[in-house]
Design goal:
Layout: H1 3-27, H2 32-43, H3 59-83, H4 86-91, H5 93-117, H6 122-133, H7 137-147, H8 153-180, H9 185-219, H10 225-243, H11 249-260, H12 266-291
Helix pairs in contact: 1-2, 1-3, 1-12, 2-12, 3-7, 3-11, 3-12, 5-6, 5-8, 6-8, 7-8, 8-9, 9-10, 9-11, 10-11, 10-12
Length: 330
């Protein structure tokens, strides 16, 4: 069977099973995201190992699904940004900063102290604490949207704190690299400078230039032109955030969504992007998490080959290997 046919079959199975699992989850009065994540675990190497069956012999098919899943999380965070009311978000900013900061400090201190108590070195203990500070912004956003509380002050505070956590973790990892590696203080200053420059440049573009461009593009005789423009904006902000700003691509996509939400066409964009995202890309992202996890390897000392893409990928690394992370400053 050709790679194309394998891909068609795999995508059909993943979307069908994921949506069915989400439906079952909602019938049990739980968020659909829970069922979709469990579906990935069931189809992954933990139980059925769907990708290891004779039906799917091409490793490239697996890679394509993972790339589509990466697009799914970017679109998910973009949609979360579109749903956000910037005014309400700013009102709860002090809560977000406080909660996000504490969400980093407590896991870092308590996790590091516990690791140190079990005879790990100081550097390894700090690294373990840093691992525990990582959060899943995208899963939080999806759950809040499903519960219908993302537009509420409490939901925005929770999502904002997750974004703050994400930025702080990158800063702390940069500091850790400086203290334990040969990078020097210059590497840390460069990371901070790039973060600051990204936000300084992205915010004015998003607040003043993007709304005008969006209105003009909507007037052009282009089929679904404004939806295509929204995709371009989401992908470009995600690209710029990671490549130039040294922050996660999903953070850039979230910012793009916030800026789009301030345009007159945000309802039209939301409807079009919602169909595209939740019919295809977002289910692939959610199910891909479980597909990359082998829970049978927990506690055995084995490292899954897919650990780079999982939410807990940092736990697969030693402190000395952190500089080998793709895109991480050397």
């Amino acid at each position: 069977m050709s790679q194309t046919l394998q891909l068609l079959l795999l995508l059909s199975l993943l979307i069908l099973i994921t949506k069915t699992a989400g439906l079952i989850s909602t019938r049990m009065k739980q968020p659909a995201v829970l069922g979709e994540l469990v579906a990935g675990l069931v189809m992954g190497p933990t139980l059925l190992n769907l990708l290891g069956t004779p039906l799917f012999t091409s490793t490239q098919v697996h890679d394509v699904v993972l790339e589509l899943a990466d697009l799914g999380v970017i679109l998910l965070m973009f949609m979360a940004g579109v749903e956000v009311d910037l005014t309400v978000l700013l009102r709860s900013s002090h809560v977000s900063v406080s909660a996000g900061s504490l969400g980093v400090v407590f896991p870092l201190v308590l996790g590091g102290a516990l690791a140190f108590a079990f005879s790990h070195s100081l550097a390894d203990s700090i690294f373990i604490g840093l691992i525990l500070t990582a959060t899943s912004v995208s899963i939080s956003a999806q759950t809040l949207m499903e519960l219908g509380v993302l537009k509420h002050r409490e939901g925005l505070a929770m999502l904002g704190s997750a974004v703050v956590d994400d930025v702080l973790v990158i800063l702390l990892l940069s500091i850790f690299m400086v203290l334990t590696g040969p990078g020097g203080i210059g590497g840390l200053l460069l990371v901070v400078l790039r973060m600051v420059l990204f936000f300084v440049i992205a915010i004015p573009i998003g607040l003043w230039i993007l709304p005008r461009l969006t209105d003009r593009i909507d007037r052009l005789p282009i089929s679904e032109g404004v939806i295509s423009w929204a995709l371009v904006v989401a992908f470009l902000f995600a690209f710029a955030a990671e490549v130039f700003g040294q922050v996660a691509a999903i953070t850039g996509a979230f910012l793009a969504g916030i800026f789009i939400s301030r345009t007159k066409l945000h309802h039209k964009i939301s409807e079009g992007m919602h169909t595209l995202s939740y019919a295809f890309f977002v289910p692939l992202f959610l199910v891909s998490i479980g597909l990359q996890v082998d829970a049978r390897g927990l506690g055995t000392g084995r490292q899954s080959s897919s650990c780079w893409r999982s939410f807990w990928w940092l736990s697969c690394l030693k402190p000395s290997e952190l500089g080998s992370v793709p895109g991480w400053p050397a």
